[in-house]
Amino acid sequence: MLKEIQSDAFKSHGKVRPPITFENGLNIVKGPDNFENSIGKSTFLMIIDFAFGGNDYVEKLKNVQTHIQDHTINFTFEFDGKAYRFSRSNYAPDIVVLCSDGYKQTDERWSVTQFTKWLKDKYNIVNPLSFRSIVSRFFRVYNRENLDELLPLRMHKNEGGGESIEAIIQLFDLYAPIERISREAADAEEKKKAFTEAQKYNYIPVIAKTKYKANIKRIEELAKKKLDLAERSSRNLLDMDSESSAALSELKAELSKFKRQRSKLYNQLNKIKEDKESGSAPYRGDFSVLQEFFPEVKVERLKTVEMFHKDISIILSGELKSAEKEIWGYINLLNVQIARIEQEISGVQTSPHLSKVILDEYARVDKELNQLKNENDYFDKLEELKDLYKSKTELLTTQTMIQAGLLQESLNSKMTELNGTIFVESTTAPRITFISPKQYEFYTPNDDGTGTNFKGMVVLDLACLSLTALPAIVHDSYVLKQISRTSIEKIFELYAASKKQIFVAFDNLLAYTEKTVNIVNSHTILELFGGEDCLFGKYFGSRIKK
Q1: What is the pLDDT of residues 283-308, one digit of tens each?
Q2: 139, 293, 345, 531: which has the fewest Cβ within 10 Å?
Q3: What does pTM read for this prediction?
């Protein structure tokens, strides 16, 4: 339990206030009877929340931070008779310092998260909620966002109904049957989301229902065409996929190219052979017969020309042999490549004599067929993920409503009990109804007045305090001022009967019954007035002198 709060910033008439101590049960911060505002009642409740690990004291009370500037809040919790002292400052609110007697700071420092985990352990709270999620929604202080009397389960204005309901189910230790299904539903949603994201960025195809149906028809047509092509090729393609048939078609094209090149080289060899044969005529050195018919011919001249031709033939013969050798080298290289391709073709289990036209068509048909099948497979997979998410969500809804029904029965029964112990029979107890996993109604039958709704919220908090591990509640005077005087007396009777800590700000006692006055006076732990008797010893509403 929270045992004490102290700060050198708390002053009265220039002097530091003594530590404010608390009891197990009702603890009241009392204000004057003249409705004087801005004296520090709500601020002190915010400081109590600060001691319980909250941040609103620093984040929302900017006026206080401006006027008081750097200061430290010291506080003590007591568990099993042992005191644990801490300090937390407004200038370093993320750090909780462990202290010895007299709030002498030690070197040990915790984060706020560590501190609230420690509090949760010390309060023996075992449900999956964080400590702040447990207490924050029931610490109702002006300037916080949990004062909506029609949505009393809400921790802040941005919290959805589903979050509020789930948190209360957890607080009442009714979440176990939901937890596994909730994880499965979240996993199903994540898978569906990942799949649609992949389609969004075109990693996988996305098709509509009409395209899906058209694909089915086209798949039937292509399957028949594929079978026809196989039959035309003596069914050699039945076991061949599009990749194999495409590879075979490519190999055949490459083989044809190499064979054409080889044929050209063979033609060149034949031409060289002809050239060699034409240039191999024997050399004739005797021109006597020629002289018999042409006595005037110059034989020596003819011999010179003949020797020139012989020399040319020798040169050309050498070049032709070199060219022939080079061509044979190319032919041998081509033969190696042709042999390799023919071996690869034989490895693709089909006839090497199939028409390239048929192979190309088969590959095209098979490729389109697989593409359409993949599109429809992706469509079916998305529908499967949608169905899975839907079924898990429906199951989660069913189980959540079962647990919410148990919670509703427990809360309504306790609120009726609390209401009946102190109010006259004609006073109707508040009720909560869970409409769906994300929506609930909180009301008092036959009475929708503002005061009645706030009274209902107080009774709800007391019921939760009684039925759960919730360690404390805080009610600001703003909440209580909305409630009728008669009901206030009964509310304070409920407060006084609590075995857990309740922190309340209250003022204007003259307007209430004698019993209310007696209860308030007997449980007051801090009394504040205006002027120098404000919490910090000064009133912020006055103009600051320059």
Answers
A1: 445 555 555 555 665 556 656 655 55
A2: 293
A3: 0.71
